[in-house]
Write a structure and sequence with these properties.
With 97 residues, the protein is an alpha+beta fold. The chain is built from two helices and four strands. A four-stranded antiparallel beta sheet has the order 2-3-1-4, covered by helices on one side.
């Protein structure tokens, strides 16, 4: 897990995390999104790209802190579906006015 997303990171409504999942099918892409939806976690970006034949890399950004039990459970569930799962980093949302 990225040091930026460690459990010592203070929770913030405006924090986001970026993940990379390597999944075996398009069905798993939908299943991963459903996990976040059931946990009421807002996804701010989803990108699915073919990786090797029959495998897709999914990049998902979502709102929340890894310290939040809902986020922690969703990340654990999605990582169990993936051949490879990585938290790429966390960042605070900045609104441009």
């Amino acid at each position: 897990m990225s040091p930026l997303c460690s459990k010592t990171t203070s929770p913030s409504v405006n924090s986001h995390a970026g993940t990379r999942c390597l999944v075996p099918s398009r069905t798993t892409v939908a299943s991963a999104v459903i996990v976040f939806a059931k946990a009421s976690i807002n996804l701010t970006r989803i990108e699915s790209v073919p990786d090797k034949p029959g495998t897709y890399a999914i990049f998902i950004d979502f709102e929340g802190s890894i310290k939040d039990p809902r986020v922690e459970a969703a990340v654990k569930a999605v990582s169990a579906m993936a051949e490879d799962f990585r938290i790429l980093g966390c960042y605070r949302e900045t609104r441009i006015q």
